[in-house]
Design goal:
Elements lengths: L3 H27 L9 E6 L2 H10 L7 H4 L4 E7 L2 H13 L4 E7 L12 E11 L2 E13 H16 L6 H36 L1
Parallel strand pairs: 2-5
Antiparallel strand pairs: 1-2, 3-4, 4-5
Helix pairs in contact: 5-6
The chain binds guanosine-5'-triphosphate and magnesium ion (MG).
Guanosine-5'-triphosphate (GTP) binds next to helix 5.
């Protein structure tokens, strides 16, 4: 029998630590008068049933999941505006408490499903009673609209067990475009409001 608790506990520690660190970025912005690029942060350790499903689907031997399954630890950062994502990516790149091993820009290159998000894979060190362990954490950075779409699409994928009928797939792709247009419109509105304010305060 596999000792999942033992394998996953450093991942839980990594997720807990990163949630605190990333929420602290938000708190630091809140102490200034600047707009915070981070709206909220969530995180989870992949449930064992999902680990087993994915290992089977992707033919990953259980001994290799710590290197080949990059999302055992997953942290998500939600932003108000698409432009905030770049700010967050820059903040992440500046940090010295972990290493970035991979970046995938699914905003410039959206997935066929319509999915958009910015992904970073981190090599994150956790300190344990038996020394330091470095492990992979998947960081997803997305707007509230991208998150709205991805959350619902994910639960539909789950309901249909990954076999969404093609007419629904098409509608989801269109819904993803609508979410993206909403993001663009919100950014534009914000830009215009900022401009108007600058004129008033001049
Ligand atoms: P998996 O998709 O996790 O098997 O690994 P991968 O190597 O293909 O990584 P990828 O960057 O494609 O996706 C990693 C994660 O992004 C997934 O576990 C999801 O959380 C999210 N994701 C990717 N594509 C989609 C999508 O079409 N819909 C939704 N809702 N989420 C997605
Ligand atoms: Mg994938």
């Amino acid at each position: 029998m596999y000792d999942w608790d033992e394998l996953l506990s450093p991942y839980k520690q990594a997720v807990d630590e990163l949630k605190i660190k990333l929420r602290s970025i938000r708190e630091q912005y809140e102490r200034t008068s600047k707009h915070t690029p981070i709206e909220f942060v969530t995180g989870r350790v992949k449930p064992v049933t999902s680990i087993l499903d994915k290992a089977k689907r992707k033919n990953i031997p259980l001994e290799e999941i710590d290197e080949k399954m990059q999302d055992l630890a997953g942290v998500r950062i939600m932003c108000q505006f698409v432009g905030d994502i770049d700010t967050v990516v820059d903040l992440i790149r500046m940090r010295t408490d972990f290493e970035i091993v991979e970046e995938r820009d699914y905003i410039k290159n959206k997935k066929n499903s319509g999915y958009r998000s910015y992904h970073m894979v981190l090599r994150y060190p956790v300190q344990t009673i038996s020394g330091e362990i470095q492990l992979l954490v998947e960081l997803q950075i997305r707007t509230l609209a991208m998150n709205f779409w991805a959350t619902i699409e994910h639960s539909l994928q789950y309901k249909y067990r990954g076999e969404i009928p093609s007419n629904i797939e098409k509608r989801l792709q269109r819904a993803a475009e609508a979410a993206f247009r909403l993001d663009e419109e919100m950014s534009q509105i914000r830009g215009e409001v900022q401009e108007a304010q600058e004129i008033i305060t001049r």
